[in-house]
């Protein structure tokens, strides 16, 4: 299964009144890592939707906050494919770049739906499954 990581720096405008990252921004960090993983695997979701008529909406997310992130923290956000057959399941992890300490873990699930009726598929298209699984 594929894995990819990105480096980010926490900006001031992501902080809440307690001077830690507001909880909603963690999903943004996960999403940046998700799209970097898809790019790494050669998947362009917009082009795929336009050319093949498939969308991959997120149906579930979870986040485990272990330690708070603060302004200017450099972080490494990794996305790892756990499953890419019936649905796409990605595991996320955020580490402080300075010491490697895990601050956050999460997971996201996506399904495949066919346009124009948004019909739920019971399997990820084979080419997307192969790209995310790392198989030719």
Number of domains: 1
Number of strands: 8
Give unreliable regions as ranges: none
Distance between the termini: 12 Å
The first-level CATH class name = Alpha Beta
Structural class: alpha+beta
The geometry reads as: elongated
Oligomer: single chain
Helix amount, in percent?
10-25%
What percent strand? 35-45%
The CATH superfamily label reads Hotdog Thioesterase
Q: Round the Cα radius of gyration to an integer and report it.
A: 16 Å
| CATH architecture level-2 label | Roll
Sheet with most strands: 5 strands, antiparallel
Order of SSEs: EHHEEEEEEEH
Q: How is this structure best described in words?
A:
The protein is of the alpha+beta class and 136 residues long. It has one domain: Hotdog Thioesterase (Thiol Ester Dehydrase, Chain A, Roll). It is 24% helix and 37% strand. The protein contains 3 helices and 8 strands, in the order βααβββββββα. It has helices spanning 25-40, 45-52, 126-133, and strands spanning 3-9, 54-55, 58-65, 74-84, 88-96, 102-110, 113-114, 119-120. The strands form 2 sheets. It has a 5-stranded antiparallel sheet. The chain has a 3-stranded antiparallel sheet with strand order 2-7-8. 21% of the residues are buried.
Descriptive terms for the model:
alpha+beta, five-stranded antiparallel β-sheet, three-stranded antiparallel β-sheet, 8 strands
